[in-house]
Design goal:
Two copies of one chain form a homodimer. Helices cover 18% and strands 31% of the residues of chain A. The first copy, chain A, is α/β, with parallel strands linked by helices and 412 residues long. The two termini of chain A are 38 Å apart.
C-alpha cells in the first residue's frame, strides 16, 4: 500500500507560483452583444467617437442663444421668434439665428447656433413667438458632445470580466460583435472501482460520483466549457486512454479520486506517460487537499484532485478557480471579491508551514458577524454544504483565538 | 408636452411591497445534474438514505474487533488471523470473527463483526497473521453509516439558489434529474424614434440602443430566459402590438425609453389597454429612476423602465432583480450577499422621503476602504461603468457626511 509519507509537498505559495507560470491564456473569439456578459473582454474598448455623439438637450424646453436672453426677467421677458421644433432622433433642419428659438424635447439634437436650453416652465409660447422669463448661461441644460465619454478615452480594459452593466458601453459604442477570450475547456473525470454513476442504483460498498458533477459545476461557474468525461476504472491502461482523450480536447483535465487512495495511485504514473514537461508538484502543504497533483503534458494541464469531495471542492476554490480565470484571460484583482469580515467563533490550531482552509458558517449575534467553523472535517459533505465560505489560515499562523478577526471568502 | 409634475410617486418601500405581492412564482421543471448549479431548487432535498450508506474505513489498515486488541502493546502485540482483504467498491464476503482481522483500504466497507480499524503503521503482517501493537477503541478510524448525513435529515431547502458545491449533495443522493423552477421569461424592448440598433451606422440625432442589451444581460444574470424583442417606434399602435406579443410569451416585459420622454408618454396608456388588473404605480420617490412604471395584465408584469441607461440599470438592481429572483422561486435573504463596508469619501445631500442610490467606486487608502461617489449623474454612462456598487441612502436620511460608514452592494 502507498501512503504519502514519502512525498515532500510544496508550500501553498509555491503551488500558486507554479500554477501562475503554467497556465497560458486561451485565444479569442467574437460573440454577439447578447452573449457578452460573463465573458472576458479580449481587447480594450476605446471610444471611437464622442458620447453623446451630438449636443443633446437635457430638458424639455427651448433651444436659444444665451446672449439673447441675458436680460430676461419675469417682469420684462424676452420674446424670441419660434422658428421650429426639433424632432427627436433627427438632426435639426435649420440653425437658431440671433433672436430665434426652437422647441426641443429631452434628448433632442441641439440646433447649430443655439448654446443653451430654457426649461419649458420658464417660457411661454405666444403665437409664433416664445417669451423667456429668465436668463440662462451658455451650456445650460445641454449635454455637450463627448461630455460623458470623450472620443479616444479608454472605456473598458482588456481582461475585464464583463458585468451586465458593462454591456451598456459595448452597445453604446456599437459593438454588435464583441472580442472575448474563448471559454477554457475543462474535462472532469472520476476514477475508482468504487465510484458509481448518480443515476444507477447504489450497490453495497460503492459511493456515488460526486466530484465529476461538483467540479464540473465549479468550472462552469468559473466561465469554462465543461466536458463530463465519465468514471474510469482503476486500471492504468484505461486511465491513460481516458486522460489522453481528455487532454486532446481540453485545456485542463481534472481527474479526481486516484491521487490518494491506498493501492491505486496510478495517477502520477499516467500523467508522466502523457509526456513532457511533466510533474509540477505532487502534494501541497495545505489542509484539506494535501494529495493534489499537477502535471503538464504539452499545452494541457493535468490535475489530480483529492478524492474526498470536500477537499476537492476546497482545492478548486483556492487553486483551480484562479488558474482557470487567468487562463480565460481575466486580469485577476481588478474586481472587488465577495468577502465578509467576521470574528472567529472557536479557536483553531494549525501547523507551521501548512495553509489551512476553514469552512465556516456566518451568523449574526448582537450586531456582529461571527464565523463558525463547521464540524465533520473534510470527510463530511455536510461540512461544505453548510458553509457560507472559507477562512484561510496562512502558513505562518498556527493559532487563531476565539474572537479573532478573520476574512471570509464567500462561496459563489 | 407632458412632464412628471402631476405624478404622485409611491415611496421606495411602497414600491417594494407592491412588487412583493405582484410577482408570482413560476412553475417547476426537471434538469440534469450537469445543469443544476445556478438554478433554484423546487423541492427540499431530504436524505432518503444514510450517508455514507455503509460503515467505511477512514484509513488504510486492518478491520478488527476492538475488544480483541484491548491488551495490545509494542512489547506484547496481539496476533490476529488475517482472514482476507476488503476490496474497495465491494461488500466484504465474510465477517470478522473474534481473533480475526481483514486488511482494508481507505473507503473500504467495514466487514460485519469488525468495529474498528488499526492503522497500517501500527500493525505488521506475519504470514497468515497480523500483529497489532496498540489497542484501538471501538469506532476508531471508522466512519459510521449516516455519520455525515443521517437518513431523513434535510440536506438542501427548497428555494435555494444552487451553488456549485450544492451539486455535490445532489450527486451524492443520486438525483440525476433535479426539480428546479423554470427560468422566468423576460422580454426586453426599447422604444423611441431616436433609438438605433447597435449594429447600424449611427445617424445624426440618433442614439444607440443600450437598454435592451444591458437590461437583457442583467435579467440573464438574475437567472432568467431573455427575449430581445427589438426597438419599437413611438407609435401607440405599434407599441401595443409589440407589448401584447411580448406579454403573451413572457412573465415580465421590460420596456424602456417611453416612460419619461416629453411628448411620447404612450407607455402608461398602452399598458392600460392590455387589460386588468392594470397600474400598480407610476413613479417611485427615488433618484435615479423616478419615472419607473409598473402595471399588470393578467399574469404578466409590465415594467416601464427609465429611458436613461444608468437609471434603468440602477432600477433593475434595486427593484427588478429581487422581483425576478422571487418569481424564480428563490427564497431571498437565505444567502449572504456581496457587500463591503466603507467610508463615504464625499458628503451627500438628499431629500426627505426620497431613497437615493449612489454609484460608488471603492478605493483603499491607508488600510481603509472608501466609497467615492462618481461624477456625472444618471445621464452619464461613465458613471455606472466606473462603479463597483451602490450605496442606498434611505428615505429618512437627508445628509451623509464625509467619512460616514456606508454599506456598498457590489455589482455582480
Amino acid at each position: 500500500m502507498t501512503t504519502h509519507v514519502g512525498l515532500r509537498p510544496v508550500s501553498a505559495d509555491e503551488a500558486r507560483e507554479l500554477l501562475e507560470e503554467a497556465g497560458t491564456v486561451v485565444e479569442t473569439e467574437m460573440v454577439g452583444l447578447e452573449g457578452a456578459a460573463g465573458r472576458v473582454l479580449a481587447e480594450s474598448l476605446v471610444a471611437h467617437e464622442d458620447m453623446p455623439s451630438f449636443p443633446r438637450s437635457a430638458m424639455d424646453g427651448y433651444a436659444v442663444r444665451a446672449a439673447d436672453v441675458a436680460a430676461a426677467t419675469a417682469a420684462a421677458p424676452v420674446s424670441l421668434s419660434l422658428v421650429g421644433s426639433v424632432t427627436i432622433g433627427r438632426r435639426p433642419g435649420q440653425p437658431v439665428w440671433p433672436g430665434e428659438a426652437q422647441a426641443i424635447p429631452t434628448g433632442g439634437h441641439l440646433p447649430d447656433g443655439a448654446d443653451a436650453v430654457v426649461m419649458v416652465e420658464q417660457a411661454e409660447e405666444r403665437g409664433a413667438a416664445v417669451e423667456i422669463r429668465r436668463p440662462v448661461e451658455a451650456g445650460r441644460n445641454v449635454i455637450r458632445a463627448g461630455e460623458d465619454i470623450p472620443r479616444g478615452s479608454k472605456v473598458l480594459p482588456s481582461g475585464r470580466l464583463l458585468r451586465p452593466s458593462d454591456v451598456s458601453a459595448l452597445a453604446a459604442f456599437g459593438l454588435a460583435r464583441v472580442p472575448v477570450h474563448r471559454r477554457p475547456r475543462v474535462s472532469v473525470l472520476s476514477t475508482g472501482n468504487e465510484i458509481s454513476p448518480p443515476a444507477d442504483p447504489l450497490q453495497p460498498g460503492k459511493v456515488r460520483d460526486v466530484n465529476q458533477y461538483a467540479l464540473g459545476a465549479q468550472a462552469a461557474s468559473a466561465g469554462c466549457e465543461v466536458h463530463h468525461d465519465g468514471i474510469i476504472e482503476d486500471d492504468p491502461a484505461a486511465l491513460e486512454w481516458a486522460v489522453r482523450a481528455a487532454a486532446a480536447k481540453s485545456d485542463v483535465v481534472l481527474l479526481s479520486g486516484g491521487s490518494s487512495v491506498g493501492g491505486h495511485d496510478y495517477t502520477s504514473d499516467v500523467f508522466k506517460r502523457l509526456g513532457p514537461p511533466g510533474l509540477l508538484f505532487h502534494g501541497i502543504a495545505v489542509r484539506p487537499g494535501r494529495p493534489t497533483l499537477v502535471s503538464r503534458a504539452g499545452p494541457t494541464l493535468l490535475v489530480g484532485m483529492p478524492g474526498v469531495p470536500t477537499s476537492a471542492m476546497v482545492i478548486f476554490e483556492v487553486f483551480i478557480r484562479p488558474l482557470l480565470r487567468r487562463m480565460g484571460g481575466e486580469k485577476i484583482g481588478a474586481r472587488w471579491s465577495a468577502e465578509r469580515h467576521a470574528r472567529l467563533a472557536t479557536a483553531y490550531t494549525s501547523e507551521i508551514g501548512r495553509e489551512d482552509y476553514l469552512r465556516v458558517r456566518l451568523v449574526e449575534r448582537e450586531g456582529e458577524i461571527w464565523a463558525e467553523p463547521l464540524p465533520g472535517g473534510s470527510a463530511a459533505l455536510s461540512n461544505v454544504l453548510a458553509a457560507d465560505g472559507l477562512v484561510t489560515v496562512p502558513a505562518d499562523v498556527t493559532t487563531l483565538a476565539e474572537g479573532d478577526a478573520v476574512t471570509v471568502s464567500l462561496f459563489t
